[in-house]
Amino acid sequence: MIPDAPRAEISRGRVVVTGASRGIGAAIVRALRERGAQVLAVGRDADALDRLAHETGAWIAAVDLRAPGAPARVVEVARDALGGVDGLVQSAGVIRYQGVGAIDAAAVDEQVGVNLVAPLMLAQALAPELRATRGAIVNVASTLATRPAPLTAVYSATKAAMLAWTRVFAVELAPDVRVNAIAPGVVDTAMVRQPRLAPGEPLPDAPERLVEAQLEALRALHPLGRLGAPEDVAAAVVFLLDASWVTGAVLNVDGGLTAC
Ligand SMILES: NC(=O)c1ccc[n+]([C@@H]2O[C@H](COP(=O)([O-])OP(=O)(O)OC[C@H]3O[C@@H](n4cnc5c(N)ncnc54)[C@H](OP(=O)(O)O)[C@@H]3O)[C@@H](O)[C@H]2O)c1
To answer: Which of 11, 19, 200, 202 supports an S-S bond with 238, CB 3.0-4.6 Å?
Structure first.
């Protein structure tokens, strides 16, 4: 073995997962628990986290990641519950579909807070723990960081910023901590099951039909012919947690969306 080589098998270690109450984050918790990892699942919805804890045996922490002191709180709970941290997976995120002319300051604050400030500050807060264990960070960004779609200016900007700081952290924390990102295409979760309305466009009588039509159009953009499942992203997270010579990388997990 090479002295001081980065560790492999972090996906079987002690991992903090944000955005864990549903969607992609919950699938990541399940995948890591199946591999025998000790997981601290972080979200806001305490009932959903309770259900996940019963199902998977994960530790849970109900924390609003925008609240003052949230990073320190997660570090404290992680130390108490896990006794140390080998991996951090950041899946918490929020999107507000707003077109030019309808972008409001509250939605900007929320998306910048959850998608940019919170993960950057949590990565910083956990960096000493991760240095001590020669651990890894995986950030869940989006293909929207590089591939534009209407109504997503603020969200896309926050995810592009996430890719930027992922690379900077990768350089600063090397050789101790690997830092990578995943850029998912459209994954079938609650996040994308909301109507996307142009500025001034009224909500139709049957919004669920509009959502289905929108999802069908999005599906057609993916050469692999289907939307992603949360498990598709979870498998990539496991890969990046354990990929011992990969840092500062962005892995597209997008059914070929960005290939065309
Ligand atoms: N679905 C897609 O097509 C897609 C595509 C590309 C990238 N992504 C990214 O993938 C990640 C997961 O998305 P998803 O589809 O699983 O979304 P989702 O189902 O809407 O889940 C979002 C998660 O983020 C958490 N969250 C939001 N605001 C929070 C806050 N202030 N504090 C703590 N937790 C907060 C939510 O927790 P609570 O419910 O408990 O508040 C929830 O667990 C996000 O970063 C998203 O941007 C998704």
So the answer is: 11
Q: Give the closest residue (by CA) to ligand 1 atom 23.
A: 19
What's the CA-to-centroid distance between 48 and ligand 1, angstroms? 13
Residues designated catalytic: 155
- Give mean pLDDT, residues 230-249: 98
Six token digits for residue 184: 């998912």
Q: Residue 57, exposed/middle/buried by CB under 10 A (0-12, 13-18, 19+)?
A: exposed
- Give the position, in ligand 1's atom list, of the atom nearest the Cα of 70: 32
Report percent pLDDT > 70 for the chain.
97
Residues contacting ligand 1 via CB (< 6 Å): 19-25, 43-45, 64-66, 91-94, 114, 140, 142, 184, 186-187, 189-192
Please give the number of the atom of ligand 1 that sits closest to the Cα of 24.
16
- The pLDDT tens digits for 11-29 are 999 999 999 999 999 999 9
Q: Structural domains in the chain? A: 10-253 (3.40.50.720)
CA dist list (Å): 64 to 10, 18, 40, 113, 117:
26, 10, 15, 11, 13
